[in-house]
Amino acid sequence: MLDFTTDRGRSMSEIRKDIVTGVWTIIAVERGKRPHDFEKQSIKKNSEGCPFCAGNENQTPPEVLAYRTGQQEPNNSKWKVRVVPNKYSALKEQNAVETIKGFYETITGYGVHEVLIDTTDHEATIGKMSYEQLELVLRALKERYKDISSDDKIKYVQIFKNQGAEAGASLQHPHWQIIGVPLMPENQKQIIKGSKKYFQEHSRCVYCEMLRYERNAKVRIIYENKYFTLFAPYASRFCYETWIMPKQHLYDFSRLKDEHLKSLAQILKESIQRYEKVFDQLAYNICFMSPPLEVNVEKYFHWHIQIIPRLGNLAGFELSTGSYINPTPPEMVAETLQKVAKKVR
């Protein structure tokens, strides 16, 4: 058996646990970078040769899902939304799940890593996309989330979008990523722990209570539609951070119905349009905050989306303490994003 706790040769990725904090790190052996690979590069904006553009389907692994008009052969160029395995995935479904314990603890790099391509339009953004197209994207994300979650070896599924080079994107063509891992990340453990504690003490979902408080206070609410609320969280970590939260207690993305997806597409587009009016070519991350798959959290966890603009880098204080310095009060964020409402109609 390969000994992961020594410095001997390694042929596959590993997920290593910090012995002090319990935080897991994916050591992506197959994506190992040499010094010159770290040279700062701008995002590739030219559509020529883009592997995500229609007509270049042979530049990606075979699709696992695609929405097309009518009956058509897979992997052709007549698609609306397309999902493929990540060509440079750090985790592999072919790997066995094995935990190796010595002085350190390691799990073999089993997992799922997929890319969802939003549209054939290379320069599209969520703010410029039609409601119908964005609804298709959300429907595909839900379908892949449910399928990946059905794997007994997967314990947590993360859906996210990196928009712009500062947010981690290397290609301009709009896309999402879906990663399933064989463990529950430490951040999610803390979220579940805090949510459960509040429920045990108050017999209510803390997120439902948070949303009720914010809607009554009316100082950090930015926009609402039938099923969702957009607001700036009270203890915002990042400049112009916002959350989208269901008004109804829904603990899992897979529980959203078609009417919810339609409403979510509307408020997500509205949110990004407001950002695009305030900032020029803003980089941001969109993170779906989902529950762990092996723990029953239905009563106290509340699925939601976090939008995190990349308006500055984490500095020494944040990296060393895990706390944040945010120079922009969320009340100011809400006021600013409220004022641009007429501009996005």
Word description of this protein:
The chain has six helices and 14 strands. It folds into two domains: 42-95 and 107-184, HIT-like (HIT family, subunit A, 2-Layer Sandwich); 187-344, HIT family, subunit A (2-Layer Sandwich). Strand 10 (221-224) and strand 11 (228-231) form a beta hairpin. The longest helix has 21 residues, at 258-278. Helix 1 (131-149) packs across helix 4 (258-278). The protein is globular, with a radius of gyration of 21 Å. It has helices spanning 131-149, 186-202, 206-217, 258-278, 316-321, 330-339, and strands spanning 14-17, 24-27, 65-68, 79-85, 99-101, 105-108, 112-117, 156-163, 175-181, 221-224, 228-231, 242-246, 284-289, 304-309. Strands 3-4-7-9-8-13-14-12-11-10 form a ten-stranded antiparallel beta sheet, with helices on both faces. A four-stranded antiparallel beta sheet has the order 2-1-6-5, with no helix packed on it. Mean pLDDT is 91; it is low at 1-9. By secondary structure, it is of the alpha+beta class.
